[in-house]
Amino acid sequence: MSNTREKIEKVGKEVIDLLIEKNKSYGDSALKPASVFGSGNAVDSLCARIDDKLMRIQNFGFRGYGEDNIKDLIGYLILLKIAVEEEGSEHHLTEWQEDVLRSLDR
Crossing angle, helix 42-60 and helix 69-87, to 10 degrees? Predict the structure, then answer.
């Protein structure tokens, strides 16, 4: 039986592998949005994806719609953390978003 550290490492690797696989498929669209239909920056785009993922979880559950929605959500949050750091864009986030990001830094 695995200990907690091994479980954390296993799940972390699964999320990282998923992010790398999706990055290959979609290009770097999470951090460099194509802006064909939308005009937001990476932070705004990722926040919208996170909102969509949370709605999917609310409507279909954690494994609904044939996806691992928890793993996807963790991946989006990692990408959001990167985007916020790269863009230095915390200044334009709403107060609740800033609170969420600050809590992730702890």
Answer: 160
SS (H, E, C) the chain: CCCHHHHHHHHHHHHHHHHHHHHHHHCCCCCCCCCCCCCCCHHHHHHHHHHHHHHHHHHHCCCHHHCCHHHHHHHHHHHHHHHHHHHCHHHHCCHHHHHHHHHHHC
Can you say how many angstroms the Cα of residue 69 is from the centroid of all Cα atoms in its chain? 11
pLDDT per residue as tens, the chain (106 positions): 579 999 999 999 999 999 999 999 988 888 988 878 877 788 889 999 999 999 988 988 887 776 788 999 999 999 999 998 888 755 556 666 677 777 767 6
Q: What are phi and psi of 92, to 5 degrees?
A: -105, 0
| pTM of structure | 0.76
Residue 105 to residue 34: CA distance in whole angstroms: 28
